[in-house]
Amino acid sequence: MKSYTIEPLGDSALLIRFGKQIAIEAHRQVMEAKQLLEQRPFHGLVEVVISYAAIAVHYEPIAVLQQQLPVGKQRDSTVFTIVAQIVEEILAEQRVSLGEEQCSSPVIEVPVCYGGSFGPDLAELAAACQLSVQEVIAIHSEPLYLIYMLGFAPGFPYLGGMDERITYKRRDQPRTLVAAGSVGIAGLQTGIYPTAMPGGWNIIGRTPLTLFDADHDPPAVLQAGKRIKFVPISEAEYDKWV
């Protein structure tokens, strides 16, 4: 029984859904499918883009039509049905367990200076959650976070594993500029702004690490499927990094 569905996404892409929940099993299926599709790129494939529980497969329709139609397909097949069959054939291959790989992958430590000018929303968030500032820092920096996906902006990691005790709504008035490296919380999610940009997340700290550099390959230091841990540092330690 298939664990996914395939549906059109415009006239030059399709969407593979592995459910509608943010869950580790769906993430593993997404990462496995991404790996299979990238190992066997079909003629006309442009890009594979992942999200929490789905994959967008972008393709060039003319290039797909120029390729020989899959065996058993009629000439009146649409580009979508052709690509959908190709995708199903690729995903039908023997599955590769990602569980052990994720557990053994190295943890990326992300130093963070919490509060002060680096985390202007930390005190407000702590008060709203009925916690002290130090309790919020301890709770936020305790888990190992899984990077489910990159989105919103190039290199912006969406992390799973944040403690519900520090859940807090987005800012009513977004900032016109959030500094690169800012660590924020919005609802049940936490993430890091890789570059300076507008944003409405509650900023609780900042990392001195450069997380996105267009001149590097890949440009984003953090990638989906990796794990990170926030490590609290002082302002003096932050200054040593920059």
From TrEMBL:
<keyword id="KW-0067">ATP-binding</keyword>
<dbReference type="GO" id="GO:0017168">
    <property type="term" value="F:5-oxoprolinase (ATP-hydrolyzing) activity"/>
</dbReference>
<dbReference type="InterPro" id="IPR010016">
    <property type="entry name" value="PxpB"/>
</dbReference>
<keyword id="KW-0378">Hydrolase</keyword>
<protein>
    <submittedName>
        <fullName>5-oxoprolinase subunit PxpB</fullName>
        <ecNumber>3.5.2.9</ecNumber>
    </submittedName>
</protein>
<dbReference type="Pfam" id="PF02682">
    <property type="entry name" value="CT_C_D"/>
</dbReference>
<dbReference type="InterPro" id="IPR029000">
    <property type="entry name" value="Cyclophilin-like_dom_sf"/>
</dbReference>
<dbReference type="InterPro" id="IPR003833">
    <property type="entry name" value="CT_C_D"/>
</dbReference>
<keyword id="KW-0547">Nucleotide-binding</keyword>
<feature type="domain" description="Carboxyltransferase">
    <location>
        <begin position="4"/>
        <end position="222"/>
    </location>
</feature>
